[in-house]
């Protein structure tokens, strides 16, 4: 009972001492900073930082001084190289020779946001090839500017992929075309890492598209389908467009007295591959109707004949699978630049009977590239330039000093000049001693003239050089021992007549 009384009396003592109670109360409420509280505060700060870096930018709110989530340092703007300039004259046009990298695009007429396939060849086997997309260049390599660049990001090429060149230096790469752009044509550049091998090709962007209905919903350019339209003014002119609503119409029709067109056969026009529209616009009423249509890719093919020729010979080609009535531009070893010729397809998208005469400067493997001017459908086909392999003989296999020699030759280039050089001793410098011209078949008989000098022993080697084909034929002439000195005047230096220079 005494203990209980003492415990109950304690509060009364506390009440008699207010100052002491406040002191005890303040001491009891003083906050304590524990490791757990520090850990919770750090986690809250981290979560706040993540929200600022990810959620706020996603909502369109930029936090000043706060980097975006997942952001990386701004990469240096890629500087794409320029292909070497063309140097060989083919049909009056400067073109690239063999062993030149080349790319083609399929499709070449692309849709914003669509898929594009880049096919390349002529690169080093196993090399890594970076592919860039950017505005068209003037053919010169971009020069880096000193100081801060003032060019916008849209004006700079952007890397869209990397591929590894396989056997024979061939690669294939797919990339998605941008959804927005300010130029109708962009340039695709394939550039090998650590190498000067680079190739370019242009990607043209199709104009806008609409929607509406036809007798078929799938087809390729040139296919025939039936169009039915109504709701226009009686007798007015109807302009028909594929994948656009302005410019020159693909076709013009006339509405009947009811303002309709019934089951009229039309051909699928050239437009971007994929989902597009046929649009009909009334010239008087301004009324418009559209029909959705799925445009299939064109798969052109080329047949060359023959696949191996010599210089001055003609290689013929025929093609099919292009758009009807379009020009097909023909280029050598490149998908860009000035075409060496153009052929027009027929109503079925084909052509035949075209050809090119090969110049002397081309050697080895070559490629002809065929690109539809409207459809941008592209295909290439390879062929080989064979070397000339001439043969030559003298009028005798051997003889004594003083023997007069002339020459017989075959399989040189047609009508070319042949210069004759002689070596009278091993390691001696060849000397020009005669010249002649072969006929249309590359043949000559009993031409040129040379007298074996009196001090010549053993073997004389004649080298016959074709001045256009750059081909060489060699003849060994055995010189018999004369048994003593032979008094024959030394030949005078030979000068090639003007008519036998090439």
TrEMBL record:
Sequence ranges of Low complexity compositional bias: 10-19
Biased amino acid composition, Basic residues: 20-32
Chain intervals for the UniProt region annotation (Disordered): 1-32, 67-86, 134-158
Protein name: Uncharacterized protein
Species of provenance: Dactylosporangium sucinum
Source species taxonomy: Bacteria, Bacillati, Actinomycetota, Actinomycetes, Micromonosporales
